[in-house]
Write a structure and sequence with these properties.
The complex is a heterotrimer of chains A (270), B (310) and C (284). The longest helix of chain A has 36 residues. Chain A has 270 residues and is mainly alpha-helical. Helix content of chain A is 81%, strand content 0%. Chain A is globular. The two termini of chain B are 43 Å apart. Chain C folds into 2 domains: 37 residues; 223 residues, Orthogonal Bundle (MetI-like fold), CATH 1.10.3720. Classes of the chains: A mainly alpha (270), B alpha+beta (310), C mainly alpha (284). At the A-C interface, helix 1, helix 3, helix 4, helix 5 and helix 6 of A face helix 1, helix 3, helix 4, helix 5 and helix 6 of C.
């Protein structure tokens, strides 16, 4: 057998093309089927506007918070092991394996008026469910491990010798992080952040339960697409889908760049 | 089973790796392909095995043109530098692999493999796994595995490179006597000149994909064909504009020779290095034996003369 | 190897050279950050998880059991497990082939192929769902009607889980040196035999892990499946849909009970896969 047989290459291209390529192209085709003019006015439909606005506001909070927490957690687990960090390490992948509907249910049970967290928060006058904070919470839950999972094996592999050398030269923890650590984890973090963005933008099941899906108020773009489709507003749905498909393609590019740069960094050392 | 290599050429893209390589490896001999990294020797070995394709030229095993024959039909034994163990199989199964492929009957496999494992001193390890073996043991297992199929030719790719000095030295001697006993035509690739000199019947010195010299070890050492060979096979120093061996020079307090001043005397146990600076040239260093150095008792700053021995 | 060599001088083991006055504050800061991390994880992950379990057993074991084994629930499990298993196994093979080509082959456009593999990770599930519905539902441009069928559900799941199997095997193939394959060839093995006895056993742990992850993900999939399945109870209702219907029908305890059952099943699968792949690696 040579490097890889010709027939396998053709088979794989066909499989991936049919399974992934065709649907992707199809989304854009459907979004443009009535031309650019109709597309433009559909994008400015009031509920679509509200949905896009809400989604952006969710991303603006969920993404930076999860990035900071994710990087911090990875550093904490690898560099300062303790029984707590070991527990967190074990538990960290849990959100990825659970169905989003179950996640939504879990959050609803914990944060509703009689829930363990909902009750004290209500006493403080804070509501989580059926509002912006709940949606942010759900999106953070589902994407929490994504950055950390990328960084833990990387930090282990890199080892702390560089950081220790910097410390011996007089650098404090913040300076060490900014000048040494960040440089080696940059592209892996970028990869994780891109995955986080994708997950936050694309979350459906969990947000469906937690938000109550109230049009114009607590309806994210994904919910908006679903609602349009259910009310036989297929075109409107595909316009929304087109927006998200576009962001997905951009995210794919980001992932590719991050992966490429990370490989370069790795080879440069070997 | 002699190996005849005729005008072999190979390039990777635009990079030539082998240029017009021709040699005949006599039946039953142990030939070393010696050269620096990138000289093409590993590629050549793989071409003999059928693991790399030939751009131009022919590979002939015992009169049969095998140039386009795939590796699995050539009946050669190959040992990789990293031993390439089959990690998920036991030592016994590793050695038995070629026999099982040939559908040799079970009892025959049991007999053959046990005998081979005894031969390589791994009799007690039959049911261990490669991960549990040391480097030297894995090397011996790789050898037994290759020998199991009763190959016509044995090819070893830098077999001792990854081993400790001590283990490597022991294994070298053992491989040499094994090869003599079995009489299999063997080609060994190495970048270590001491290894080639110690183990091989004949040495082929390669550089940049070409042959620099072919001969028996003593011949290539004493009569190197060019400066590259001389420098590769042993230490050299420059005397009177020529490249010579440091132990071919003599130092004396008087008599014929090039005048020089002693710069340094370095005692390395049996060998003593004397660095001298002649008036008009760069420094020369000589090798003296311990006894010679003791007799002379040179001091730094002394005036001496340097000439060739003999 | 976890690097647990001593941390830089400004730790609790010795006062730092500079700013030694700050030392008690730094210890406090460290303990606080530990506290913050614990609080964060509790709020977001652990407490809701506990709330789920607690809710499931609100009416005791009997009710839990009745809800978890309701006829509609059993039908949902059967559908979900069958389709997830089929999809995971399909992608186990497809993922291996795809990863093989991505690592070992070279052709123009390979980078695009590599990037496309991640699309199911990047694309929102609802987008996939509505696209598949339009693509092979009523009014399908290719005249397929797979909506409302187990096949249609399986196809959607295959889409969603392909990256798992590809990306888990890909790094292992990348680090293979192929010397073992070459050695096997010199010993007389045909390419198929080499693949079967040497290559596949090396890749098996990674294939198993990837397939396990794909299966776990598939069992919980909602957004892409709910549109193509038509959600007919007992016929084409996946487990997550069933849970949602219970929750929105005002039966949170039943929903929680079913959810807990699903979680336990997923956990069992993940543990089994982890044990199996560790068993495989141990022998090698």
């Amino acid at each position: 057998m040579g490097r890889s047989p010709r027939w396998l290459r053709l088979l794989v291209i066909l499989y991936v093309g049919a399974l992934i390529g065709v649907p992707l192209v199809f989304v854009f085709q459907r979004a443009f089927v009535h031309g650019a003019g109709a597309l433009w006015s559909a994008l400015h439909d009031s509920s679509m506007d509200a949905a896009i606005g809400l989604t952006i506001r969710v991303v603006l909070v969920a993404l930076p918070v999860n990035t900071i927490v994710g990087v911090g957690a990875a550093l904490w687990i690898v560099r300062r092991p303790s029984w707590v960090s070991r527990l967190v390490d074990r538990v960290i992948d849990v959100p990825l394996a659970i169905s989003p509907i179950i996640i939504g249910l879990m959050l609803e049970l914990a944060y509703n008026q009689s829930g363990w967290l909902g009750r004290p928060l209500a006493a403080l006058g804070l509501t989580v469910l059926f509002s912006y904070p709940g949606i942010v919470l759900a999106c953070m839950f589902v994407s929490l491990p994504l950055v950390t999972r990328q960084l833990i094996p990387l930090l282990r592999e890199i080892g702390s010798h560089q950081e220790q050398t910097a410390a011996s030269l007089g650098a404090g923890p913040v300076r060490i992080f900014l000048t040494i650590t960040m440089r080696s984890i940059l592209w892996a973090t970028a990869y994780g952040v891109s995955l986080t963005l994708a997950r936050v933008l694309g979350e459906y099941g969990a947000v469906l339960i937690v938000s109550g899906n109230i049009t114009n108020l607590t309806q994210t773009l994904t919910l908006n697409i679903g609602a349009n489709f259910e009310s036989y507003n297929a075109y409107q749905g595909f316009v929304g889908a087109g927006v998200l498909a576009t962001t997905s393609v951009v995210i794919l590019l980001l992932l590719g760049v991050a992966r490429h740069r990370e490989r370069k960094r790795h080879e440069h050392l070997a | 089973m002699s190996i005849s290599l005729e005008h072999l050429y190979k390039s990777y893209g635009h990079e030539p790796v082998l240029t017009d390589f021709s040699d005949v490896v006599p039946d039953g001999s142990l030939t070393a392909l010696l050269g620096p990294s990138g000289s093409g020797k590993s590629t050549l070995l793989k071409m003999i095995a059928g693991l790399e394709s030939v751009d131009q030229g022919r590979v002939i095993l015992h009169g049969r043109d095998v140039t386009t024959l795939p590796a699995r039909h050539r009946n050669i034994g190959f040992c990789f530098q990293d031993y390439a163990p089959f990690y998920q199989l036991s030592v016994f199964e590793n050695v038995a692999y070629g026999l099982r492929t040939r559908k040799v009957p079970k009892h025959q496999i049991q007999a053959d493999v046990t005998e081979l494992l005894e031969l390589v001193h791994l009799g007690d390890f039959a049911h261990r796994y490669p991960r549990q073996l040391s480097g030297g043991q894995r090397q011996r297992m790789a050898l037994a595995r290759a020998l199991a199929i009763k190959p016509d030719v044995l090819l070893l790719d830098e077999p001792f490179a990854a081993l400790d000095a001590q283990v490597g030295a022991e294994l070298r001697g053992w491989v040499r006597s094994l090869q003599h006993e079995l009489g299999i035509t063997t080609v060994l690739v190495t970048h270590n000149q001491a290894e080639a000199m110690e183990v091989a019947d004949r040495v082929v010195i390669m550089n940049h994909g070409r042959i620099e010299q072919v001969g028996i070890p003593a011949e290539v050492y004493d009569q190197p064909a060019n400066d590259f060979v001389r420098a590769f096979l042993g230490p050299t120093t420059t005397f009177e504009g020529q490249s010579v061996r440091p132990h071919d020079l003599l130092v004396a307090r008087s008599g014929d020779g090039v005048a020089a001043v002693v710069r340094d005397v370095i005692r390395l146990g049996f060998e003593v290095r004397v660095v001298v600076a002649p008036a008009s040239a760069e420094t020369i260093w000589l090798q003296l034996t311990h006894d010679e150095a003791q007799q002379l008792d040179l001091q730094v700053g002394e005036n001496v003369v340097i000439r060739r021995r003999n | 190897m976890l690097d647990t060599v001593s941390p830089p001088p400004s730790s609790a083991t010795q006062p730092p050279r500079k700013g030694w006055l700050l030392w008690p504050f730094q210890t406090l800061a460290r303990r606080t950050s530990q506290g913050v991390a614990v609080t964060f994880y509790s709020l977001v992950v652990l407490i809701p998880l506990a709330a789920l379990f607690s809710s499931a057993f609100t009416h005791g074991w009997g009710f839990f059991w009745k809800a978890a084994t309701a006829k509609e629930a059993l039908a949902a499990y059967r559908l979900t497990i069958t389709c997830s298993l089929l999809a995971a196994l399909t992608n186990a093979v497809a993922g291996l082939g795809t990863a093989w080509v991505l690592v070992r082959d070279t052709f123009r456009g390979k980078a695009i192929l590599n990037a496309l593999i991640d699309l199911p990770f990047a694309l929102p599930t609802v987008v996939a769902g509505v696209t598949f519905y339009t693509l092979y539902g009523p009014k399908s441009p290719v005249h397929l009607t797979l909506t409302g069928t187990w096949t249609g559900i399986t196809v959607a799941i295959v889409f969603v889980t392909l990256p798992f199997t590809v990306r888990s095997v890909q790094p292992v193939i990348e680090t293979m040196t192929f010397n073992a394959e070459a050695a096997a060839a010199t010993l007389g093995a045909s390419p198929w035999r080499v693949f079967r006895t040497i290559t596949l056993p090396t890749l098996l742990p990674a294939i198993l892990t990837g397939t396990g992850l794909a299966f776990a993900r598939a069992m919980g999939e909602y957004g892409s499946v709910v549109f193509v399945s038509n959600n007919l109870p007992f016929r084409t209702e996946v487990a997550s849909s069933y849970i949602y219907s219970l929750a929105s029908a005002g039966d949170p305890v039943g929903a929680a009970a079913t959810a807990v059952t699903m979680l336990v099943m997923a956990l069992v699968v993940l543990i089994a896969v982890s044990v199996a792949s560790r068993r495989l690696v141990k022998g090698s």
